[in-house]
Amino acid sequence: MRDRSTELPPECWELIFNFLDHHRHFESLSLVSTQFLSITNHLRRSLIISSQTSPFLPNLFQRFPNLKGIEIREFDGDLNFLLHQISNSGLDLESLTLSSQDHFPLMGLRELGLRMRNLRKLSCSEMNCLQDTHLFEIGNSFPLLEDLNISFPQYNSRFDPIGSLDLQRFSGIVTDEGIIHLSMKLKSLLKIDLSGNQFISDKSLQFLSENCLLLREIVIRECDFITQNGIGSVMRRCINLNYISVDGIGIPSIELYFQESFVFAKNLSEVNLSHSFISDELLSSIADACLPLKKLTICHCYDFTFVGVSYLLYKYQFLEYLDLEGANFLTDESMIDLCEFLRKLTFINLSLCSKLTSLTFFMLVSNCSLLKDVKMERTNLGVEEFLVDFGINPCVMSLNLARNESLSDECIKKIAFCCPNLQELKISHCPTITEEGIREVLRSCGEIRHLEMNHCSGIKCLDIDFELPKLEVVQAEGPVLDDEALMMIAKRCHGLLQLDLEGCLNVTIKGVNGVVQSCMRLREINLKWCDNVKVDIIPRMVFSRPSLRKIIPPCRFIPTDKQNKFFLRHGCLVCKG
């Protein structure tokens, strides 16, 4: 007889399951028992709705009663009716994403506002034909909003073939009037993204800074009529501001008012000035402002030098995040000097710094003991050969070293030795890396979960004689892998979740079938442009591997409505090839 005293109450299981980093892990747990099924259903907090999943919404809402966030993606049905269903679902949503929709669902959002009074986050980015009347409705319907994204509205349909405004189809845009209304209604607003709204001006920023006293984060990119003085006024008036992202600074020149505004932003911890003409004087002003700065992004910026960035980093030696992409003046020698100021760094991006070699990478890994994430795309990584031994950094988790044409097997082996706990590696478009280098990386880095090696022409096979139980994602687009390599993956990577084989011309039904049969947790597979894979394998894949949730088939395969229903009944979305 079973000792029932050893059973844990549901509350304890909930605490345990909450340690899982993604709800995808709930699926296998739900198969253990009806108790686990009930617990995981109640723990689910987010849901993505597409055209394919919309017919099942009543059942999904009933199954997951505690959903807090919904994202509507790739939906081509009646958006107002969909929001009506959500409004009457009994859910208490806090977050809704409506990005990239072809129209604004005015009636649906109005109804949702009557039911979902606790909605805190709304994203309407890349919405077609967004205009002031829509912002009026947002302000009236969701007065408790804290996070609003109305970036990059799409107005392409309002321009004629030669690019002039078509007045006959022109019905409205987002102007200062809409933003002013939002500022007066959304008193709890903490974050707003105004990027791409090209007809708003400094007046919008004035009212936001006067009415939204709690504002902490503002993003203003590609807003042609917003000036440096307008941005400076936000920094002076919003005493709670801790994040600002702008571009185009310094065109035609840096305004003194803007430069001197940083000293007023006492809580500013994140600054993004990408794609701007910044000067050493501006960097010095930021340095002397004595901000609690943790993150700095000045990628693809111009007119500053090593002197300016060195002084700033000297002042902010507690910086955790640094993005210097495209700073072509940086050399290995200058980076050795800067390393002295980067002891607290956890992320750095040095992509497109073409003068940097392997010496910079190993210096960073050795001197920045907290470093977790390094991006060095399109550098000279692999050029510098040296015999100096560098230290091991167990904190490094992610490396993006793509498009380094000189990155060799020997160099990647040293990198793997220095980063034994690596979990993510991206080395796409590195033609001199071969299967020997990949094999040693996988041998040295037993924690690796994500491997990208797209279009690595030097890799022909994968001769691996050890298990890779933690490898979950493999991306190998282009003529990289063949059936033999896929059989090796099937044999060694039983925990594989996602496999991207787009354009693998040497792959056939034999290799794909081997992976599908052996990788019992496989959720996604991309076979686009795999011309030697016969399309009749698709139904067998769905039927034989219950874990599959998404298949991108070869381009010749277009599922019928009957096939789509069959696939969806098995929980798998099969896209058009």
TrEMBL record:
Lineage, broadest ranks: Eukaryota, Viridiplantae, Streptophyta, Embryophyta, Tracheophyta
One cellular component (GO) term of this entry: SCF ubiquitin ligase complex
GO BP: SCF-dependent proteasomal ubiquitin-dependent protein catabolic process
Superkingdom, natural source: Eukaryota
One Pfam family recorded for the sequence: LRR_6
SUPFAM superfamilies in UniProt: RNI-like (SSF52047)
PANTHER family: F-BOX_LRR-REPEAT PROTEIN 2 (PTHR13318:SF106), PARTNER OF PAIRED, ISOFORM B-RELATED (PTHR13318)
Organism: Populus trichocarpa (Western balsam poplar)
Transmembrane segments: none
InterPro entries hit by this protein: Leu-rich_rpt, Leu-rich_rpt_Cys-con_subtyp, LRR_dom_sf
Name listed for the protein in its UniProt record: F-box domain-containing protein
